[in-house]
Amino acid sequence: MTEAHVSPAKYLWIWVWLAGLMLVGVALSAVPLPKTAIIFLIVLLSTIKATLVALYYMHLKSDKQALVLVAVFPLVLIGLAVLVILSSRLVRL
Amino acid sequence: MSQAHAATLSEAFSTTGIPSNKLGMWLFLASEVMFFTGLIAAYVVLRMSNPAWPGPEGHLSAAIGTFNTLILLCSSYTIVMAYDAVLNDHQRRARGFLIATILLGCSFLGIKGYEYAAKFSHGITPGTDVFWSCYFALTGFHALHVLGGIIANLWVFSLALRRRLPPSRGYLVELAGLYWHFVDIVWLFLFPLLYVIEPLLQRLT
User: How many CB pairs under 8 A join A and B?
Assistant: First the structure.
């Protein structure tokens, strides 16, 4: 069993960051920026929030490297999937 | 099951030095990540292929979606606090945080049900068009996962009620929590995709 190395106060701070970043993402849609930039920023914010949850709430930060590799490997596959999807827009068969 | 036996199970390590139950849960979550990746990728491909994306017959309320996201974020906080409470043998606090997690999860599903009912009452169903097919598929599968998480949390809560959740069995809360946080993470991507980016694209197209 992994010991929790995060204090209750830190859990609360992480929640504050998560809620704040979520609200920033919603507010971004009203900012007069190019839509590509807004979409990129919103996806980036979601990734940051997911990372915070994984590192602190799921305790990956204090877990063994092997477990971190298991958790991170799907992201490699997701990256490959994204490349395939985007490449289909470049190569029209 | 005796506490000694339970402690032995909780300490069963794989050759990697990671508790087997925890490794098993992360492997399961990895497969679930690929499941939702496939669904979201399908949505993105369909969206990119249809510049004139349908949807004027109805819209999603960003306010409701934002509130529901806050509910899920709160539930992530409460379940991790429940785990912390169990590890420190604060049984009453653990029960409180566990029931809060369950109630927040039920609230999320209740609000999702309200959204679905509103859509159905306006004649919007999964068969209306491609967008609504994707919306109901993505959020429907996510809601089923939330329901599964609630059931798991209810079982852990029942152990806590029967005073069968000492610190040595805290791994049960950890495992339930890992699944619950995963469900939260999926929503952290679904919510902006459907409630923020999609209306933005409709507005700017």
Answer: 124
Which residues fall within 8 angstroms of residue B45, CB to CB, at 6 or more apart?
A: A85, A88
Record the tokens describing residue B52, joined without a space: 């004139």
| Residue entry with tokens 């005796």 | B2
Helix, strand, coil distribution of chain B in percent, nearest 5: 80, 0, 20
> What confidence tens digit (pLDDT) does each residue in B119-135 have?
999 899 998 888 899 99
Q: Kindly state the tokens that stand for B87.
A: 């590890």
Indicate the residue of B27, B48, B170 with minimum beta-carbon distance to A1: B170
Question: For residue A68, what are its two tokens?
Answer: 């971190």
User: Does the beta-carbon distance from B37 to A74 stay under 8 Å?
Assistant: yes
Is A54 in CB contact (< 8 Å) with chain B? Answer: yes
Element (H, E) at B197: none
Which secondary structure element, helix H or strand E, spans residue A19, and what is its range? helix A8-28
